[in-house]
Amino acid sequence: MHLYDAQKIQIYNTLSGQKETFKPIEDGYVGMYVCGPTVYSNVHLGNVRTFMSFDMVFRYLKHLGYKVRYVRNITDAGHLENDADVGEDKITKKARLEQIEPMEVVQRYTVDFHNILNTFNFLPPSIEPTATGHIIEQIELIKMIMDNGFAYEVNGSVYFDVHKFNETNDYGVLSKRKLEDLIHNTRALDGQSDKKNPQDFALWKRAEPQHIMRWPSPWSDGFPGWHLECTAMSTKYLGDNFDIHGGGMDLKFPHHECEIAQSEAAKGQTPVNYWMHANMLHLNGQRMSKSTGNTVNPSELLSGDNAFFSKAYAPSVIRFFNAQSSYRSVLDLTDDGLLASEKGFFRLMDAINLLEDLKPSSESSFQVAEWRQKCYDAMNDDFNSPILIAHLFEAAKHINQVKDGNASLTSEDLELLKKTMNAFTFDVLGLVNISKAETGTDKLSGAVELLIQLRQDARANKDFALSDKIRDELAAKGIQLNDGKDGTTFTTN
Ligand SMILES: [Zn+2]
């Protein structure tokens, strides 16, 4: 008997526009794909929010006992500046501007991406494939789509024929758009494009002579289209039809719409049963945007070195803040909001820290089994983490009452309460039990957290000289690292 037999999840499926009872294709197994970052710049905080939400989904599915294969890719080629298949490849452009190899760009920002995610206590995905590692699979997919008559070649580039596809299939099934409206709303081609229609999208692009990232294909030396990469990588590892596909709301159209079209055109079946989309992150009530300056990157938020926030916030406080909203709501990042979350976070940690010292009684004044099911009900309702947190606070209140002698728990209930609090707080929400002293009121904690993470990475790479150096240099500055069974904490002299 697994937990998932008793706990049935409802998932809001973008495809149907409603919550549906989750039923995996194979009992006990879940295949989940989430579109990863294009590694041409430091990871955007909005993307961190998306990946954080799916980290929670991954954690909850695992907690229920599912064997989850979670695939999150790295886009290291083919993502053009403009969705309409024009402009430069983002990575090639960065390489040109910085006068380095495209693969140096990829390496630098992949490392940054992993460091940030580790800092936020993400679980690594089961597989993290790269687009450049799957060129052959992408060429094979293009051949299938062409053989089925849904793509055409012009001057060495291959385009998906959206109009032809829409005669037999529904282009717009996910984003609820109609091709007629799209035609009406797109500007006519200016004669520069090889496409038959502006709605068509590139499966393969012929590389210009100066383009470094290029691979041989039956059509030209070139590179794959961005939408195709995800179809190739998701279906290779999860099958032609798999359970869950996630991503940010901004990827719904055209990216995910194109993924569906490609799969249907190549394999004659829809690729995904449940489409999940995480909503956007705003900063002080407005969209984050580099051009308006209303933006903060993850390391600035952690270090406190920014113009928007009064202090540094610990990674777990930011995780807690994120979990206090549904993944489907717009989340507005504000200093007041983070301060309130920090208070709430420590209220919860204080209660959890009390659990070990509570003395059991012969009776319980708190129905722990009922409360536990309410926690599951919250998460089963489309991963409703804000409701879960409300239940965790309810338990925290009772824990404090037991400590003060105003309430009681039997030893059995106390054990169940401990187990459930720990499971939801640490395993599912991915929080780390840090003390207030560690966060401080200054910018120190974020920076030290980052160093602790770098030291862990160094140890994982068997670079003990570097890991010792980080520990010793911090010690020389009065910051002691303490390695415990739950990770590394720090104290200051
Ligand atoms: Zn994708």
Written description of the protein model:
By secondary structure, the protein is α/β, with parallel strands linked by helices. The chain has two domains: 3-278, HUPs (Rossmann fold, 3-Layer(aba) Sandwich), CATH 3.40.50.620; 315-428, no CATH class. Helices cover 46% and strands 16% of the residues. The protein is built from 18 helices and 17 strands. The strands form six sheets. Strands 4-3-11-12 form a four-stranded parallel beta sheet, sandwiched between helices. A four-stranded antiparallel beta sheet has the order 7-8-9-10. It has a three-stranded mixed beta sheet with strand order 14-13-15. Strand 13 (281-283) and strand 14 form a beta hairpin. Helix 3 crosses helix 4, helix 8 packs across helix 9 and helix 11 (315-323) packs across helix 12 (335-355). The longest helix is centred in the C-terminal third of the chain and has 21 residues, at 335-355. It is globular. The model has no long low-confidence stretch (mean pLDDT 93). Zinc ion is lined by residues 35, 230, 255.
